[in-house]
Structure formats: C-alpha cells, structure tokens
Amino acid sequence: MTTAVAAAIRERARSVWRSLEEARRDNDAHAMLLAADDWDEVQRLARAHGVNLGDITDGKDDLSA
Question: What domain count does the chain have?
Fold first, then answer.
C-alpha cells in the first residue's frame, strides 16, 4: 500500500464520519442510512489496506452511538 492510498482512505473516512455525525445530530434517518452505508465501505477499504481509523472516530467506530 502506498502512502497516497492510505491518505485517500483517511480523507474519505473523515468526510463520511462528518456526514454520519451530522445526520445523527439532525436526526435525519435518510442521511444516516446513506452515511452508514458509506461508512461500511470506507471501513472495508481501511481494513483491506491496513489503515487505522481510530483517531478519526475517537475510538467510536460503530454505529450505535
């Protein structure tokens, strides 16, 4: 894996996490479903490439919060 790939995954994760938090804050069920699907995908990519996302999520990487 290259540093560029890791950086791209991390940037996408930051964007998706912000969207997920915003949907939760606004109590927007539709936006939450879309963001949750995107979050699943970015987590899959991160795992496949060995990228840790813990600092982006402050350790809260599940959708139960």
Answer: 1
